[in-house]
Amino acid sequence: MSGCLLVINPSSGKENKDGLSEKISAMLSKHFDRIELRYTEKAGDAEAFVDLAKDLNMDTYFVVGGDGTVNEAINGLAKMENPLKFGFLPMGTVNDLARALGIPLKLEDALSALEHITWQPLDVGQINDQYFMNVVALGEIPYAVNHTSSEEKSKFGFFAYLKDGFNALINDEGQTYHIKLDGEELDAITTEIILVALTNSVGSVEQMVADARVDDGLLHLLVLKDTNALEIGQEALQNLFDGNVSQANNVSYYKGQHIEITSDDKSDDIESNVDGDPGPTLPLELSILPSKLKVMVPKA
Ligand SMILES: Nc1ncnc2c1ncn2[C@@H]1O[C@H](COP(=O)(O)OP(=O)(O)OP(=O)(O)O)[C@@H](O)[C@H]1O
Predict the structure, then answer these.
(1) Is 279 found in the same domain as 137?
(2) Which residue has the higher pLDDT, 13 or 198?
(3) 226 lies in which domain range?
(4) ipTM beyond 0.90?
(5) How many folded domains does the chain comprise?
């Protein structure tokens, strides 16, 4: 008998929640014999419920929420040797993983798209001792975003805020970083922003990293160059938001499986942003877990 634990974050998103669990259960009942429902109450619940799903002998773990909830689910699943299968419905403001996987962002559309499903292999990223599914950002700008109130963030979204707030946020020349990519030391770089992306969609910009595939087994490293000159920085950031960053002049673009990032500057103060939330400080070690998960997507 196939079973699915359905976990809903009742605080995510702004859509009307009337009949939400019934509608989702109806869709899931087409694919599973047995469905159990739980609601999250606080940070960490969507990660902890993975253990409950295992105890209940479920084979699939399905969450409904924003990027925070999806990231928690990934953190629960990725540490399993043989992870449960994964599914989700996007309810947040950014929803990059859904965009990359072709899961519609509107609830009713997603529910009908998932009437017919297939299981897509999905890479998971590791940063120090935690996991991510979409993007790690590092530098002055992500730092400022980390220290922005969640109201502002939920109003504008992570990168929308970043874009609108770019002028206001620039206040110095950036940090100097040392980056080792697959064991090779790159030239030291002074920059305001470093991104490590897993999917083509970053910060709601669906083709920012046009080459990235959810199961290509690669980390996509983007470094904004020449940020001492504000105008160049702005132009490069605009290139990021216009998509297809590998074509942009002021962005260095690399691919690899293992990245180490250190800095001569005050490392303890340099904080990362992981999937839109504050992450670990330097030094950072990132790696890819190729096709670690199988995720439910609409059948083409
Ligand atoms: N019942 C609850 N009430 C209030 N907050 C909750 C509840 N359950 C979980 N949370 C909080 O919600 C956070 C995750 O929110 P999530 O990011 O999924 O939604 P969102 O903020 O609407 O989406 P996005 O980040 O894309 O804007 C968790 O880290 C946790 O702190």
Answers:
(1) yes
(2) 198
(3) 132-291
(4) yes
(5) 2
